[in-house]
Amino acid sequence: MASVSFLDLGNTGALFAIILAVGFVVGKMGFLSKATQTGLTNIVIYVTLPCTIINSFQVSYDPALIRNLGLTLFVAVCSQAIGQAASVIFFRKQPHEQRSVLRYGMIVCNSGFFGLPVLYAVFGSLALPYGAIYLIPQRFAMWLLGVPLFDKDSQKKKSAVAKTFVHPAMIAVYVGLALMIVQKSLPTAINTPVVALASCTMPLAMMLVGSILVDIKPSMLLDKNIYFYCLIRSALIPALVFLLCLLLGFGGTVLHVSVLMAGMPAAVTTSLLALRYGADERLGSALIVISTITFFIMLPVWLAIFPLVP
User: Fold this and answer.
1) Range(s) of the domain holding residue 108
2) Is residue 183 part of a domain?
3) For 123, how many CA atoms within 13 A lie in the half-sphere containing its CB?
4) How far apart (Å, rounded) are the C-alpha atoms in residues 229 and 287?
5) φ, ψ dihedrals at 61, nearest 5°
6) pTM of the entire structure?
7) Contact between 77 and 123 (Cβ < 8 Å)
8) Nearest C-alpha neighbor of 109 from the set 294, 310, 255, 247
């Protein structure tokens, strides 16, 4: 993957800023109610994002690509383990209502809904198969480790693995990998709408994130746990993943995708699950908003560092 030039970085930053601003204005005007946000989020997760993943795998079969996807999966597992360890080490003393939110936000980040559109905007479609593979460990972690932080019903863990295997993003990975391996493209009548729907993912996701920024309130800026969380989520974990890749000799797209995905902000489900199970949903909303801002602060830092790595 070619390095991102400062011109490309500027153009990408302007793209993000404009679409986020549009989302913010639309949210401020009340056009995106909570119900509408939830509906559009479901459209992205269940419709446009799977189309993006399937479309990204329609490339020429390359053994080197398969190898790199395997390396990305390995780094993703390591990154997930780092996040899990950080959630246990750093968030132990808070009351359950806050601790469950902070630990969930550390285990489950916004790498699917938000991460794949960011990768596409920054690196183009060639990075998307890597991003889709990177999501796999987090899907398991979400159901097996994340949700039980709020709901400790052990019976629900029995269906967790099944839910992971049939998640729309996972099904899209299966379809995409199969198409790449057998070197077949979708029929034109199917592929054309898939491509069209895939193109909606980035603007829809960014507008929704912009509308979430409306929820930020001055009182949120007083909780030191939020800043501590953002320091770990946005800086420490991606830095550790960066060092891991360097030590193992993983460069190029594997390193770029892994580091950016490791630093993604808190997932939208952080506040939704907190609200559902009686935890601190305001803290969840604050984590989403402020960690998203922190990610955009760190993004140009990492993109400036990447060209320095062989």
Assistant:
1) 6-308
2) yes
3) 28
4) 8
5) -65, 135
6) 0.79
7) no
8) 294
CATH for 211: 1.20.1530.20
Residue type for 13, please?
G
Q: How many domains does the chain have?
A: 1
Kindly state whether residue 1 falls inside one of the protein's structural domains.
no
Query: Which residues, 6 or more positions from 32, have their beta carbon under 8 angstroms from its beta carbon?
Result: 23, 26, 40, 207, 208, 211
The answer to whether 18 and 207 are in contact (CB under 8 A) is no
Q: What is the C-alpha to C-alpha distance for residues 272 and 202, in angstroms, rounded to an integer? A: 22
Residue 222 falls inside a structural domain: yes
Cβ neighbour number for residue 90 with a 10 Å cutoff: 18
What would the pLDDT profile of 53-104 be if each residue is shown by its tens digit? 888 777 676 788 889 999 999 999 999 999 999 999 999 888 888 888 899 9
- Which residue matches tokens 């800043």? 227
In three-state form (DSSP H/G/I as H, E/B as E, the rest C), the secondary structure along 215-265 is HCCHHHHHCHHHHHHHHHHHHHHHHHHHHHHHHHCCCHHHHHHHHHHHCCC
